[in-house]
Specification:
Layout: H1 5-29, H2 33-41, H3 43-78, H4 95-146, H5 174-201, H6 208-232, H7 236-245, H8 247-259, H9 266-285, H10 289-299, H11 312-327, H12 333-339
Helix pairs in contact: 1-8, 1-10, 2-3, 3-4, 3-9, 4-9, 5-6, 5-11, 5-12, 6-8, 6-9
Keywords: Membrane, Transmembrane, Transmembrane helix
Pfam family, one: EI24
Membrane topology: Multi-pass membrane protein
């Protein structure tokens, strides 16, 4: 039993460190006051954020509320599905008519989805994707021009920390440009395979929902910080290394975003996410995650959590796809594969 002492002590120390970093990530995600400060600094940011709220909140979620609270009850009143004499549907003399009413009511609701909800969903997805980039960019400029929330003058790009490198991280010669293009392609593949991994884990019996929740938290945390890292010119390898080395922090950061949508229907979840996501993008843009993580690490020297290969499966699949295109003589992919030792 004594031989179990040191391993258990190490496990307790690492569990404590992971819990505290998770709480730090959660606290950072909840610093929504930054959104107000940055919007006051940038008129463009205020407009874009307001457009997201108007489209996804007022129009999209408002349409769902109108359907559930007004349109469906009115249709049930006009086209009832119950016999007026409180007979069962089989014994009711108007059973055939009621079945027709039910079919007609269902058809009208489906038409509402086909001609309103689904086109609105596609429009919202396209516009929101464009607006999220603008929101991250305007928020980033608000920070670089005015400093972080609560600070008088601080330019994050001047800090020589792993996640705040300037564009000098990437060489600007032809090979550097090709690597930049290849990194964008690789990033899309990586996150696509990771999303598929998240989707598949949801079908695992018993523990699937818990794993799905954790992976979704990491995925949305990465999405939120990726805007900032891209604007800072941080290379993809350094992004993945920093993310996987501080997995507990980012699990905590992504948790509030997922909690808000995890228990809703898919359409409602999308509408809620589309409202909250730009807020978390701005909190991530204003976060000094490297400094927050470095502070407790000084106290736990020798008990580091270590790097967790979160993207291992997605990375492997993405690199196999890129290797296939390399075999087809893709000049764009070769520099990236060379940098990845493939």
């Amino acid at each position: 039993m004594e031989s179990l002492g040191p391993p258990m002590a190490t496990l307790r120390a690492k569990s404590k460190q992971a819990s505290l970093l998770w709480l730090e990530g959660l606290r950072e995600a909840c610093c929504l006051h930054r959104v107000v400060i940055y919007c006051l600094r940038s008129r463009e940011l205020t407009i874009r954020t307001g457009q997201c709220f108007l489209l996804n909140g007022f129009i999209f979620l408002g349409s769902i509320l109108t359907l559930k609270a007004v349109i469906i009850p009115v249709l049930q009143w006009i086209l009832p599905n119950q016999c007026p004499d409180k007979h069962s549907l089989e014994s009711c003399p108007f059973g055939g008519t009621l079945r027709f009413y039910s079919f007609l009511r269902l058809g009208l609701v489906q038409l509402f989805y086909v001609f309103w909800f689904y086109p609105l969903y596609i429009l919202s997805y396209i516009l929101s994707t464009l607006w999220y980039n603008d929101i991250a960019k305007y928020g980033f400029f608000a920070i670089t021009n005015y400093g972080h929330a609560g600070e008088e003058s601080h330019n994050e790009l001047q800090s020589p920390t792993p996640q705040n490198r300037s564009h000098a991280d990437k060489p600007m010669d032809l090979e550097g440009i090709l690597i930049g293009i290849a990194e964008q392609v690789y990033s899309v593949l990586l996150l696509s395979f990771f999303f598929f991994q998240v989707y598949v884990t949801g079908f695992v019996p018993y523990i699937g929902k818990a794993i799905n929740f954790l992976l979704l938290s990491w995925m949305y945390a990465y999405y939120c910080f990726d805007y900032k890292w891209n604007l800072s010119g941080l290379s993809l390898d350094k992004r993945l290394d920093f993310f996987e080395s501080n997995w507990a922090f980012f699990a905590g950061f992504g948790c509030p975003c997922i909690l808000a949508i995890f228990f809703f229907s898919p359409l409602v979840s999308y509408g809620v996410m589309a409202i909250l996501y730009p807020l978390f993008v701005l909190t991530a843009t204003g976060s000094e995650a490297d400094k927050i993580i470095a502070l407790p690490r000084r106290q736990w020297e020798g008990f580091g959590l270590g790097r967790l290969p979160i993207f291992f499966a997605a990375d492997y699949a993405s690199l196999r796809v890129l290797s296939f295109f390399q075999c087809r003589s893709s000049q764009i992919m070769r520099p990236l594969l060379k940098s990845r030792n493939l």
